[in-house]
Write a structure and sequence with these properties.
Helices cover 66% and strands 1% of the residues. It is mainly α. The chain has a two-stranded antiparallel sheet with strand order 1-2. The N and C termini lie far apart (160 Å).
Length: 774
C-alpha cells in the first residue's frame, strides 16, 4: 500500500536517468524509476516530455515529430441529426428563415407571399413547441422566437387589410405576461382601429399605450399624442385636438404638429390664435445645417474635396427634403389663413408676408406674393392680378421669371398674343431654363402659324425638364399640324407611358391612328378611353363612326345609341340612327329621332320632310298628308313638299291635287326665273371684268354696266342655288322661322307694284340691279 511507504522526500535515494545508465536502478524504497522498463514494456513519462523525443528512440524508433508515420487522420464523426436536440435546432433555423423571407417579400411588395411565409413560420413554431413538450424541455422555449413569429404574422395580416385577424394576433401577444414591453403593441392596434374608422377605440388604445410608456421615451410619447390629436380632428373634436397639439408644441415643437394646430384654429374660426400658431410654425427649428456649409472655399483643397463628397450625400438630401416639407406647410398655412385673419385676403397675405420676411424663410415672401396674384385670378380680378405680377419685374431672377410666366399665360388666355409673347420673352431672359416660359413662347408661335419654330421651343423645354408633360403634348400637336404623324405618334406614346389614364392623350392617339388608316388601332385606343370616361358622348359617336366605316353596323348602332343616350342633341348621331332604322325597315322608330332633330333645328326643312317620309313609308298616308300640309304652311316655296302633296293627293283621290299642282308650277317657274337672273348676272359680271381690264389698259376708268353687274353678282351670290337639293339648304338660304301673316306670296291679291314687277320679269338685265331686294 502507498501508505506503508514514506514519501519520497523522507529518505535519500539515488536518482538515475536513462541517459546515465541503460538499465535503470531501483530506488531504495523498492519503487521503479520513472523511465524504467518492467517486463519489457517502457513506462511513459508521467511529467514533462520533450517535444519530438522519447526514450523509445533507443529501441529502434525513427524521429517523427509530426506523426506522419501514423497515416491519415480518422474522419470526423458525422453529426447525428436524429437526436431531439438537433431536430429542435434545425426547426428553429427554419422558422427564422421563414420570418426573414416574409419580411423580404413584404419589402418587395408581394404582400400575399409575405403572409403565406408568416403563416408557415407560425405552423412550424407550434410544431417546435410540441417537440419541446415531448422531449421534456418545455422550460427552454425560445420566447423571442415566439414573439417574432406572432409579431410578424400580425403585421402581415394588417398589411393585407385582414384587420380582425391582425387584432386577434396582437391580442395574443399583449395578453401574454411573459413578453416584456408588449403593451407598446397597443399603438399598432390603435392604428388598425383608425384605419377601420373606429375612432373611439383608437383613442382608447392610444391612451393605454401612452400609459405603459415611461417618460424616458419622450419621442415615442410625442408621436402617440400626435396620433391622438389627428384622431380627434377626424372626429370633429377640435378642442381636444388643440389640447394635444398645444402640449406637443410646448414640449417638442415640430412642423407637422404646428400645421395641424393651425388647421384646428381655422376650423373653429379663432383669428388671433391662428396668427400666434403661424408665428410659432415659422420659428420651429428644423435641425439642419446652413447651406453655406456646403460652399467650397479656395484655401483648403482637402476641405473642398470633403465638401464635394458630402454635397449630395443622403444626409444632405434628407435635410433638403425636410426644408422643402417645411416650406410646403408654411405656404399652405399662409394661403389658408390669409383670407380669414383679416378683413380682405390681400391684407391677410400682406401680414403673412411680413411675418415670413422676419423669419428664416425669407425667400418664401415672393412666393406668397405670387400666390396672392393667383388668388386675384381665381376671384376674377384680373387687373389686380396683373398689377401684382408686374411688381416683380424688378425683383430677383427666379421670382421675375415666375411672374412673367404667369403674365404671359394671362395674356394668352385673353388672346392678347403680342403681350403674351413679350412677357414670355421677359421670362426667358430672366431664366432661360424655365420650361413654362418656353412653353408659353411656343404657344404664341403656334397660334400665329409658325409651327416649326414653336416645335423648337417645345423641344428646348423638354431638354430643360424631361418630365414636362405640357411641352411633350404640345410638341405632339405641333407634329400633327405639320403632317409629321409618326413623330407625333411617338410623342403621344411617350406621354401615355407617363400619364396612363389621361383621356386627351388617348384621344390624340386614336385620332392619329385613324389618319394613318389603321382603324383597328384607333378603335382599341378609343375602347381604352371609354374605360376612363364611359359617359363621353363624342368618343362613343366616334367609335360608332369607325365601326360603321368597317361595315359592322350592329356595333356601330350600339355605340351611336349610347352616345345618343348621354347627349341626345347631336344632329349627326340622330341622323345616323334615323337612317339606320329606315335601312332596317323600322320607319316607325326613325320618326322619334327625326322629330327630335326638328326640335333642335326647326328652320331646317329636311327633318320635317324625313318625318313625313317615314309616315308615308310605314303606310300611314293620312298622317303623312297632314305633315306635308304643315310643312307647306311653313315652307310654301319648297318644291319637294309640293311634289309629295301632289302625289299623295292623286293616290288618295283628293280634290286638292289641282291647287297643289298649280302652286308647284308657279314655284318652279319662279325658280327658273331666278336661275336665269343668276346666269345673266354672272355673264354680265364676266363681261364687265373684261371691259374694265381693257379700259384700265387704255388709261381710262369707267363705271358702267360692268360696275352694276358686279354689284348684281355680289348680291346674287348670297341667294340659294336652285339646283341644290333640299338637304343642302342652310338656315341662311331659307328663313323658315318667319311665317308671313298674309300667307304664301303666290296666293296674295296682286297689287299694282306686284303686277308691274311680274310684267317686267323679262326686262333688260341692266335693270335687274333695281329689282332685287337689298
Amino acid at each position: 500500500m502507498t501508505a506503508k511507504f514514506p514519501g519520497t522526500a523522507v529518505g535519500t535515494r539515488v536518482l538515475g536517468t536513462a541517459f546515465n545508465s541503460r538499465v535503470p536502478m531501483s530506488s531504495s524504497m523498492g519503487r521503479p524509476m520513472t523511465g524504467s522498463v518492467q517486463d519489457g514494456v517502457a513506462r511513459p513519462m508521467t511529467a514533462v516530455r520533450a517535444a519530438g523525443y522519447s526514450s523509445a528512440m533507443s529501441r529502434g524508433s525513427t524521429f517523427d515529430p509530426l506523426g506522419q508515420s501514423k497515416g491519415p487522420a480518422p474522419p470526423l464523426e458525422s453529426k447525428n441529426e436524429d437526436t431531439p436536440e438537433e431536430k429542435i435546432k434545425i426547426l428553429e433555423k427554419k422558422v427564422n428563415d421563414l420570418i426573414e423571407e416574409s419580411c423580404i417579400a413584404h419589402v418587395r411588395g408581394d404582400l400575399q407571399l409575405a403572409l403565406e411565409k408568416a403563416k408557415d413560420a407560425g405552423r412550424k413554431e407550434r410544431t417546435l413547441v410540441r417537440q419541446r413538450d415531448q422531449t421534456g424541455t418545455a422550460d427552454h422555449i425560445n420566447l423571442d422566437l415566439t414573439y417574432s413569429v406572432l409579431f410578424n404574422l400580425a403585421n402581415q395580416y394588417a398589411n393585407n387589410d385582414m384587420f380582425p385577424e391582425a387584432l386577434n394576433t396582437y391580442q395574443v401577444i399583449v395578453k401574454n405576461k411573459m413578453f416584456t414591453n408588449a403593451g407598446r403593441l397597443k399603438v399598432n392596434m390603435a392604428n388598425i382601429y383608425f384605419k377601420q374608422k373606429n375612432y373611439p377605440k383608437a383613442i382608447k388604445f392610444y391612451r393605454m399605450a401612452l400609459d405603459q410608456i415611461s417618460n424616458t421615451h419622450k419621442d415615442m410619447r410625442i408621436k402617440i399624442m400626435q396620433n391622438i390629436g389627428v384622431v380627434f380632428i377626424c372626429m370633429g373634436q377640435y378642442s381636444d385636438a388643440i389640447s394635444s397639439f398645444e402640449h406637443i408644441m410646448t414640449e417638442s415643437p415640430n412642423i407637422r404638429t404646428g400645421f395641424n394646430l393651425i388647421l384646428c384654429y381655422y376650423a373653429i374660426g379663432d383669428r388671433e390664435r391662428m396668427k400666434k400658431a403661424f408665428q410659432k410654425l415659422i420659428y420651429v427649428p428644423l435641425g439642419i445645417e446652413d447651406e453655406e456649409k456646403y460652399t467650397p472655399s479656395n484655401d483648403d483643397p482637402h476641405a473642398n474635396l470633403v465638401i464635394e463628397a458630402i454635397k449630395n450625400d443622403q444626409l444632405h438630401q434628407m435635410e433638403r427634403e425636410r426644408k422643402a416639407l417645411a416650406e410646403k406647410y408654411i405656404m399652405t398655412a399662409a394661403k389658408l389663413i390669409a383670407p380669414a385673419i383679416e378683413a380682405s385676403f390681400a391684407a391677410g397675405f400682406d401680414w403673412c408676408v411680413e411675418m415670413v420676411k422676419s423669419s428664416q424663410y425669407v425667400e418664401l415672401a415672393n412666393d406668397l406674393e405670387i400666390s396672392k396674384a393667383i388668388t386675384y385670378l381665381r376671384q376674377k380680378e384680373f387687373n389686380q392680378a396683373v398689377e401684382t405680377l408686374k411688381m416683380f419685374e424688378k425683383k430677383d431672377t427666379r421670382v421675375k421669371s415666375a411672374a412673367a410666366t404667369n403674365l404671359s399665360f394671362l395674356y394668352f388666355l385673353e388672346k392678347d398674343y403680342d403681350q403674351a409673347d413679350r412677357y414670355a420673352d421677359l421670362a426667358m431672359m430672366a431664366d432661360r431654363y424655365n420650361p413654362a416660359a418656353l412653353i408659353n413662347k411656343g404657344n404664341t408661335l403656334f397660334v400665329r402659324g409658325d409651327h416649326e419654330k414653336a416645335g423648337e421651343f417645345f423641344k428646348e423645354a423638354l431638354r430643360n425638364d424631361s418630365s414636362c408633360t405640357e411641352a411633350l403634348y404640345n410638341l405632339g400637336l405641333t407634329y400633327k399640324r405639320l403632317g409629321r404623324l409618326e413623330e407625333a405618334l411617338d410623342c403621344f406614346l411617350k406621354l401615355h407611358a407617363i400619364l396612363r389614364n389621361n383621356a386627351q392623350v388617348m384621344y390624340q392617339l386614336a385620332s392619329l391612328y385613324e389618319v394613318l388608316d389603321d382603324p383597328n388601332q384607333a378603335i382599341q385606343w378609343l375602347m381604352q378611353l371609354i374605360s376612363v370616361t364611359p359617359t363621353d358622348a363624342q368618343v362613343l359617336a366616334k367609335l360608332g363612326e369607325l365601326y360603321d366605316g368597317e361595315g359592322d353596323k350592329s356595333q356601330a348602332f350600339q355605340y351611336y345609341y349610347e352616345s345618343f343616350r348621354y347627349f341626345p342633341s347631336n344632329i349627326d348621331v340622330i341622323e345616323w340612327l334615323g337612317a339606320y332604322y329606315i335601312d332596317t325597315q323600322f320607319c316607325e322608330k326613325a320618326i322619334q329621332y327625326f322629330e327630335r332633330a326638328t326640335l333642335i333645328q326647326p328652320t331646317q326643312v329636311k327633318w320635317q320632310l324625313m318625318v313625313a317620309s317615314c309616315y308615308r313609308r310605314s303606310g300611314n298616308y293620312q298622317k303623312a298628308l297632314e305633315t306635308y300640309k304643315d310643312i307647306h304652311r311653313k315652307f310654301p316655296e319648297n318644291t319637294e313638299c309640293l311634289r309629295f302633296l301632289v302625289r299623295l293627293c292623286t293616290d288618295m283621290g283628293l280634290k286638292e291635287v289641282q291647287d297643289y299642282a298649280t302652286k308647284l308650277k308657279k314655284v318652279e317657274k319662279m325658280k327658273e326665273i331666278k336661275e336665269q337672273r343668276v346666269k345673266s348676272a354672272r355673264d354680265n359680271s364676266a363681261r364687265g371684268r373684261r371691259e374694265g381690264s381693257a379700259s384700265s389698259d387704255s388709261g381710262h376708268s369707267s363705271r358702267g354696266p360692268s360696275a352694276r353687274g358686279e354689284r348684281l353678282s355680289a348680291r346674287l351670290r348670297s341667294l340659294p342655288d336652285s339646283n341644290e337639293p333640299y338637304e343642302a339648304s342652310s338656315q341662311r338660304d331659307i328663313d323658315a322661322s318667319y311665317l308671313d301673316p298674309l300667307g304664301p306670296q303666290l296666293e296674295r291679291p296682286k297689287t299694282a307694284a306686284k303686277k308691274r314687277i311680274e310684267e317686267d320679269e323679262f326686262a333688260d338685265e341692266e335693270l335687274g340691279d333695281d329689282l332685287l331686294p337689298d
